């Protein structure tokens, strides 16, 4: 089941009183595909939205309506309500004070406490939200530009960073940042989906930190191995030219430990010397060995 589907079902579970039903249906009707005196057309690919629209219509308008369903080529199903009965349409316009050829959000129609449920109705009519495991994206497909702009203003009032775009001649209101999506889902009555996004964010953050640590550890291991290889090469060059005896006792001791333990860390080498020294002390001795080897390569004699 999709994340959008989860959000719709959660929203619908909260539409349980007269005011909420009125506000939710208002959002669904205002943002439906067609709203005129001749025809009201509500279409959705969500059976949950279709069934909710039918139930709310019967509860608020007191008329029973049914949807038709049609299979699409992509295996999705389109649920459609095409209302042409003038008596039913006139009742809808009367109840919600709709004006012919003008769609606008009339906040006087709904109480302040019901704005979230109204927006939930908009989501049920034309909204979708992506699985947060894939990407953060919530959007509404508005039937006209003016409604898109009004919806953006409403969402900005709750702190959501909503933007608009035109896609295939449709007006899209969208949110891309996770916090705005969380605020919007909570506002419209889907707090469990909000928690799911938060959990995904925590998981992604932990995974990214683990990857950074692993990458850092790998880089450090590579650095240690490359340094050890270079030290071994320097020592072997000195042995093959000047002989190990050319090194003083301190340098000879770390050189032998390195030859015998190519994977040993500088710290461990320091601890295994006859007179233990710090890691920086061992590193200093290897720098002296490197200088001697470099002089040999350059043909410099001491």
Question: Could you please describe the fold and organization of this structure?
Answer:
The chain has 302 residues and is α+β, with helices and mostly antiparallel strands. The chain has helices at residues 3-12, 18-30, 47-60, 86-96, 115-126, 145-157, 178-187, 191-241, 249-260, 266-271, 279-298; strands spanning 34-35, 40-44, 68-71, 77-83, 127-129, 138-142, 163-167, 170-175. It has two domains: 3-189, Roll (Endonuclease I-creI); 208-298, no CATH class. It has eleven helices and eight strands. It has a four-stranded antiparallel β-sheet with strand order 1-2-4-3. Strands 5-6-8-7 form a four-stranded antiparallel β-sheet. A hairpin with an 8-residue loop joins β5 (127-129) and β6. 30% of the residues are buried.
């Amino acid at each position: 089941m999709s994340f959008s589907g989860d959000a719709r079902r959660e929203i619908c579970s909260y539409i349980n009183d007269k005011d909420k039903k009125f506000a939710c249906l208002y959002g669904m009707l205002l943002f439906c595909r067609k709203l005129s005196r001749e025809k009201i057309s509500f279409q959705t690919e969500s059976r949950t939205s279709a069934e909710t629209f039918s139930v709310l219509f019967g509860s608020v308008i007191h008329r029973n309506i049914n949807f038709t369903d049609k299979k699409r080529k992509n295996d999705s199903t389109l649920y459609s309500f095409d209302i042409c009965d003038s008596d039913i349409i006139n009742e809808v316009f009367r109840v919600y004070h709709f004006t012919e050829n003008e769609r606008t959000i009339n906040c006087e129609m709904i109480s302040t406490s019901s704005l979230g449920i109204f927006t939930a109705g908009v989501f049920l009519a034309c909204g979708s939200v992506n699985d947060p495991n894939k990407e953060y994206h919530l959007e509404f497909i508005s039937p006209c530009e003016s409604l898109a702009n009004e919806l953006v203003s409403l969402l900005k009032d709750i702190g959501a960073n909503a933007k608009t775009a035109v896609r295939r001649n449709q007006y899209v209101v969208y949110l891309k940042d996770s916090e705005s999506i969380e605020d919007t889902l909570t506002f419209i009555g889907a707090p469990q989906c909000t928690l799911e996004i938060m959990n995904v964010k925590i998981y992604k953050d932990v995974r990214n930190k683990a990857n950074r640590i692993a990458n850092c550890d790998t880089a450090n291991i590579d650095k240690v191995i490359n340094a050890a290889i270079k030290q071994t090469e320097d020592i072997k060059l000195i042995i093959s030219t000047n002989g190990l005896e050319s090194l003083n006792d301190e340098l000879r001791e770390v050189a032998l430990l390195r030859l015998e333990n190519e994977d040993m860390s500088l710290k461990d080498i320091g601890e295994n010397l006859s007179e233990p020294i710090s890691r920086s002390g061992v590193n200093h001795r290897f720098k002296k060995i490197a200088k001697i080897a470099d002089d040999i390569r350059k043909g410099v004699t001491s």
